[in-house]
Structure to design on (564 residues):
């Protein structure tokens, strides 16, 4: 019954798109992956863009692509064979870059006026060499398992103007192995994105090649795809993820299970890292590891699809995703209370031992990439803020209400097209807690310590303390920013100095520092270049021992009381 209804609705939607498209300019993207050159980790994809209704004077910006986005280099400076033409013939293109900063773009313009249909094509190179810039989200083009994957924001030039386009995606798989297929965040093969901003392509995941799938045939909103051979069978973990997605659909009161795709790929730098994108998430695995290890990321990224709301800072989206990443799977019966506790204590340990955990919120964005201890604050402090808030709401309402009610209300506001600003959030806090709500919020933004009550995570858990050696690189963290990383301000008594690192050493590394910061046993492995020689230095990036808050199982409380 339900299925039939949605099928009919989908057909109607297709018809109305088709009639609207007649009045719409089109933006068509054709992707033609080159033969996958797996052993060398290199390859390419030919991209052809067709825009209708162009009317641009000479020198007007036509197309753009970030050069660097989220510390990730794109193909803006490495693409080749760039050609453009309109009805009058070849269009010579020139480009200009924004000033170099954390996020900056290249802008292409034509040397003469352009009218009507514009066709632009180029070859985007693929190179699996770990990026020099260090850790970033897994956006870049990669080749593996005789196919490729990428996020649009690293390789698809987009129109400079913000006008709506009827966006079409086409694939040419003729250079790939027989049996190859293509998919994206918008579905399998050639698809229409409908009318809207062309910028949607920037948040789209693309994958093509001999793909593996779970389930073999999709029966709900959930599906998963991957290339190559991960070091574990993804199917059982994807079955777990599918169950969780169904459960969360109910929790967030979605009227129907929304389409949701998991794209799995190899990550040489930050195995387990992921990125939430349109209707999908991209998650990654390393040379070793298990599906179990992915579950935290899978839950975290899935939560983003409901609770990443416009108009709110990172403290909101990342904070609630960390707060709920163990809690919702435990409530769904998909994680044990002890597994939930371990995840909670990882967050608590990293937050309470963080030497910079009093950094005000307004300093986080400008300093986001310069120091991992700042980068993790929206996650860790945000999660503890939501935990404190949850405890206060439960207490104030005599157990009748919780953070869930506010979170679901915000999600429903977005569903109805209402604003989801910080002011809207504060209004909910005032309703629940009076002035104590905004006061807590302001304290969080100022950088004050967020400390849940002993029973802040329910009757099953009680607050305690533990000891941990504080994360400390042993040198100025900004040494690790940018393409060339030169060690400076080395502390003479640090583990780094003891391991032989020196000021002036040029280093590279292939690890995610937030992961190293979160794991007290994790060593930092640097490739050091000094006086023309390159050699490894490995050390435990830890300093003084500090006391941190932790939670433990309360004696005599059964598992059944933990999920509330
Ligand atoms: Zn996140």
């Amino acid at each position: 019954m339900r299925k039939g209804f949605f099928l009919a609705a989908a057909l109607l939607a297709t018809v109305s798109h088709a009639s609207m498209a007649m009045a719409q300019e089109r933006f068509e993207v054709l992707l033609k992956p080159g033969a996958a050159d797996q052993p060398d980790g290199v390859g390419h994809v030919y991209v052809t863009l067709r825009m209708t209704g162009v009317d641009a004077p000479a020198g007007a910006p036509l197309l753009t692509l970030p050069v660097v986005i989220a510390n990730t280099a794109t193909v803006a400076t490495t693409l080749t064979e760039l050609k453009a033409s309109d009805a009058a013939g070849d269009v010579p293109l020139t480009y200009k870059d924004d000033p170099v900063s954390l996020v900056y773009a290249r802008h292409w313009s034509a040397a003469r006026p352009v009218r009507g249909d514009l066709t632009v094509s180029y070859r985007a190179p693929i190179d699996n060499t770990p990026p020099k810039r260090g850790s970033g989200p897994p956006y870049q083009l990669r080749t593996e398992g005789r196919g490729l994957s990428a996020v649009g924001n690293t390789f698809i030039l987009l129109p400079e103007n913000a006008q709506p386009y009827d966006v079409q995606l086409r694939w040419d798989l003729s250079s790939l192995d027989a049996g190859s297929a293509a998919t994206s965040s918008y579905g399998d093969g050639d698809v229409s994105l409908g009318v809207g901003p062309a910028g949607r392509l920037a948040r789209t995941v693309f994958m093509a090649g001999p793909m593996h799938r779970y389930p073999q045939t999709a029966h709900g909103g959930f599906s998963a795809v991957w290339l190559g051979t991960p070091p574990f069978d993804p199917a059982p973990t994807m079955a777990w993820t599918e169950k969780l997605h169904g459960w969360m659909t109910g929790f967030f009161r979605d009227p129907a299970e929304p389409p949701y795709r998991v794209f799995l790929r190899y990550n040489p730098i930050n195995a387990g890292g992921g990125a939430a994108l349109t209707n999908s998430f991209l998650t990654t695995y390393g040379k070793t590891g298990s599906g179990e290890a992915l579950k935290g990321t899978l839950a975290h990224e899935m939560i983003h699809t409901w609770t990443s709301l416009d108009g709110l800072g990172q403290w909101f989206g990342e904070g609630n995703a960390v707060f709920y990443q163990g809690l919702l799977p435990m409530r769904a019966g998909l994680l044990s209370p002890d597994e939930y506790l371990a995840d909670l204590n990882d967050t608590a340990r990293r937050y309470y031992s963080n030497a910079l955990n009093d950094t005000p919120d307004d300093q986080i964005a400008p300093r986001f990439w310069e120091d991992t201890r700042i980068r993790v604050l929206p996650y860790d402090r945000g999660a503890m803020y939501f935990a404190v808030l949850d405890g206060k709401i439960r207490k104030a309402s005599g157990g009748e209400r919780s953070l869930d009610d506010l979170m679901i209300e915000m999600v429903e506001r977005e569903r109805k097209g209402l604003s989801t600003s910080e002011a809207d959030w504060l209004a909910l806090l005032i309703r629940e807690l009076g002035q104590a709500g905004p006061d807590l919020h302001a304290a969080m933004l100022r950088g004050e310590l967020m400390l849940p009550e002993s029973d802040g995570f329910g009757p099953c858990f009680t607050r305690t303390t533990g000891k941990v050696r504080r994360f400390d690189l042993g040198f100025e963290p900004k040494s690790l920013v940018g393409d060339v990383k030169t060690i400076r301000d080395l502390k003479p008594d640090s583990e780094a100095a003891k391991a032989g690192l020196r000021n002036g050493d040029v280093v590279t590394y292939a690890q995610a520092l937030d992961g190293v910061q979160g794991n007290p046993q994790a060593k930092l492995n640097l490739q050091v270049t000094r006086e023309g020689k390159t050699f490894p230095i490995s050390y435990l990036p830890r300093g003084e021992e500090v006391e941190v808050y932790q939670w433990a199982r309360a004696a005599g409380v059964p598992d059944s009381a933990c999920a509330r």
